[in-house]
Amino acid sequence: MKRWGVLFMLSLAFLALPFTITNVVVKGLETIPLSSILERIDYSGDLTEKDVEEIAKMIFDMGYFASVKPELIPGKGGYTLLITVKENPKVRDWKIAIHGEKLLDIRDLEKLVTIEKGKALNVKRVQESLENIKKAYEEAGYIFVEVTGNMKGDTFEIMVEEYALWDVFINGETAGIDISQIVKEANLNLLKDFYSASPLVRFFTMSKKKFYPKVSDINRFIQTLRLNAFFSEETTVNFKKVTINDVKEKTIVLIVNVVQRKVIDKKRSFDYIEVVGNSLLSRDEILRASKIKPGVVLKNHEILAAMNRIMDEYKRRGYPFVWVEASVEKDRLIFKVYEKYISKIEIKGLKTTKPYIVKNLLRVYEGNPLKSEDVAETFSYLNNTRYFSKVDIRPLFTPDSTDVNLIVDLEESDKHYFIVGGVAWAPPDGEWWEGLAGNVDFSAVNVWGYGQRFSFKLDLGIKKKTVSFDYEIPSPFALPFDFGFSVSYEKISATDTSMATNTLTLGVDFTTLPIKGNIFKFGASFDDVLNLENGKTLTVLGGYAYDKRDSKYVPRNGFNLGIDVWKAGIFQLNAKDYVKIEGYAGFYTQILDSLSLNMKVFGGKVFLKRGEENIELWGPRSLRGYDYLEGKSAFLISNNLNWFVKEEPVIVVLGLFLDHGGISNDEDMLSNVKTSFGPKILMSLPILGNIEFGYAYKLMEREWSPYFVLGQEF
After folding, report:
1. 3-class SS of residue 545
2. What are phi and psi of 651, to 5 degrees?
3. What are the distances in angstroms from CA 30 to CA 69, 80, 87, 547?
4. Is the four-CA dihedral 140, 145, 146, 151 of positive or negative sign?
5. CA-CA distance, 60 to 293, in Å (whole number)?
6. Contact 471, 486 (CB under 8 A)
7. CB atoms within 10 A of CB 138
8. Which domains are delineated in the chain?
């Protein structure tokens, strides 16, 4: 930006003795009030020439003036101090211009600007504003941003230039190095890949914002270099601004100046190849992975490549961060392996949540080898509790050591109250509200830090309406299971073949903590149909679930499955007597960066001896576009193609769906199969959970129908 010069013009007679100022006059003011200057000046008592200089400097330091000229004018009883100022240009307005992808919301940046409109430009406020904006980018993790400013007419323009990463180059000792593979391993996004991709791939999978690197991206790349055998400690990383033809973005390139590790100075062969320090993989497995043999002439970079192949084999087996060193003893080449074992686990960030709640969710243990699967599973369990707004698991280690200090850094959520549930609507034959079916769940989670959940739920089905209260607490008294209690009141409307019922239900259940993704559930419930003399039923429940999804809300990868079995009519409490079985499975795969495909399957069957019980298709488990469905048997196959168009702070997904399913009351299920397909919009909100709406084409009826669903994936 333009620098405003300082001009001190002191027309003062050399005064050997102190003097007195009786009055102060300021000339040249246009936009700055005189009072704002006078309130800063203290001219009482005897003054010297130095004091006058300090007064002039203090006025200049206000930041509004291009020059300040003090002058002493003799008068009766003392001197008049005449200060002539020249104001900086007047600022009618200011604005922020961002050259880039607007990585930060411009409205948030505008709040950081302290420049005053209608006054002379204040260079101190300019500097403060520029520093505030720069700091905001740095706090968001962006370091390749330039913030400057300048007057354009009577408007001060703040220019923010965001730099994208175009490419990575290597200089120096590059033999044997595939830099593209290293970039891929570090998950570093390059803008050149955006411009080389087809328009269709760009549209569905690439957001330009991801090509603007954060500190974490650069640190991850440097960490990848550190864990690659080719790069010694003398290797350096620099950045350079570049201009690319026909590319409008501001760009930089990353330059790696390579100094390779030295195992041998010149090529040679070895009679023996030995492996030490290994336990997780055998010597033969390691040597096969290295792809080198005794007697073969090797260059230095070929030994380094063999070290990398050994580490890659460990990584492929699920053991990350293993380090390999190579040394030479006479005719022997020795590979020393540093396998990583968890020496200590530190849980940080807990304020309210009790430590044992977190420890019961960990799938990493001190003394065990560090495994990628265990870390990912731990992250998934912690992230899906809704106790924490942020979960970060960081291994701290040095390459040439076997010890890993695992940091589990948690940020407790300040959201303890939620409204979630499931709602479905399809055009009914009667009034519009007759097509509504769903539930609303008002819940409080982890309020006192014990992981407890209180829930008040209202289910409004077409024929059945339920109000219930549930209480769940994980690992009470640090026991290895979760405990749940529920009480509910259910009202079922009369039909042509059945009477209306009012039922009170009490239930308890016990759910085991996840064991390698496996969860078991056991429970019992007591039902009393209040308007029947013999309306009491005792039901027991057994269930199993396996969940390896990366999220319970909008998964991209993984799979889950489960089965629940109910047996009603235990002992003499058998107003209802049935066996009900429900099972589900989901398969999720990310086919492109922002594109995911999934298939979910549900099925159920009731073996009824006495009373009434059905399998329901509604809410999140509905055949989209159709009304509430129930029967003694049911199945649903739901296929979804999801395009993630936004991920923070709200997940927004556009997609297509294809549903196929049906219900049956002991007749041939295939005679009552229904199919629907169409477009959808899915949003995952912090308080409400998942909201999905779309337009379904009902194939059998050959008509379109809108639908609305509230609730999380089954």
Report:
1. strand
2. -80, 125
3. 16, 21, 7, 71
4. negative
5. 77
6. yes
7. 12
8. 19-87 (3.10.20.310), 93-161 (3.10.20.310), 164-258 (3.10.20), 272-338 (3.10.20.310), 341-412 (3.10.20.310), 417-710 (2.40.160.50)
Residues 377 and 361: their CA atoms lie apart, in Å, by 9
- Residues 665 and 457: their CA atoms lie apart, in Å, by 29
Q: Is the separation of the CB atoms in 493 and 507 below 8 Å?
A: no
| The residue count for the chain | 714
Examine the pLDDT at 1 and tell me if it is beyond 50: no
- Quote the CA–CA distance of 201 and 247 in Å, as a whole number: 18
Under 8 Å between Cβ of 422 and 709: yes
226 neighbors 157 (Cβ within 8 angstroms): no
Q: Residue 40: pLDDT above 90?
A: no
- Separation of alpha carbons 709 and 425, rounded Å: 7
Amino acid type, 167: D
What whole-number distance in Å separates Cα of residue 17 and Cα of residue 33?
Answer: 33
Strand order in the sheet with 46-47: 46-47, 19-27, 78-87, 65-75
Helices (H), 145-214: 179-185, 191-196, 199-205
* Dihedral sign for Cα atoms in the order 426, 430, 432, 436: negative
HSE of 81, CA atoms in CB hemisphere, 13 A: 26
Token pair 């396998």 is at which residue?
Answer: 339
> pLDDT tens-digit profile of 66-81?
999 999 998 888 888 9
Burial 229-264 (b: 16+ CB within 10 A, else e): bbbeeebeeeeeeeebeeeebbbbbbbbebebbebe
Burial of 694 (0-12, 13-18, 19+ CB in 10 A): buried
- State yes or no: pLDDT of 405 exceeds 80: yes
Distance between CA atoms of residues 375 and 398, nearest Å: 19
User: What amino acid is encoded at 142 in this protein?
Assistant: Y
* Tokens found for residue 576: 């209802």
Mean residue pLDDT of the chain comes to 89
SS3 for 144-161 is: CEEEEEEEECCEEEEEEE
Predicted pLDDT of residue 462: 67
Cα 52 off chain centre by: 59
Distance in angstroms (rounded) separating the CA atoms of residues 333 and 316: 24
Dist CA 662 CA 629 (whole Å): 8
Answer whether residue 155 shows pLDDT above 90. Answer: yes
User: Phi-psi bin for 546: left (phi > 0), alpha (psi -120 to 50), beta?
Assistant: beta
Cβ atoms < 10 Å from Cβ of 16: 7
Strands 93-99 and 155-172: parallel
Encode pLDDT of 191-201 as tens digits.
999 999 888 77
176 — pLDDT class (breaks 50, 70, 90): very high
pTM: 0.74
State how far the alpha carbon of 253 is from the alpha carbons of 170, 196, 227, 458, 701, in Å.
Answer: 11, 17, 22, 57, 58
Please answer whether residues 225 and 204 qualify as being in contact, where contact means their C-beta atoms are separated by less than 8 angstroms: no
Tokens of 230: 């080719």
**CA–CA separation, 11 and 26 (whole Å):** 15
Give pLDDT, residue 581.
97
Tokens of 428: 């009914």
Core vs surface per residue 39-55: b (16+ CB within 10 A) or e: eeeebeeebebebbeeb
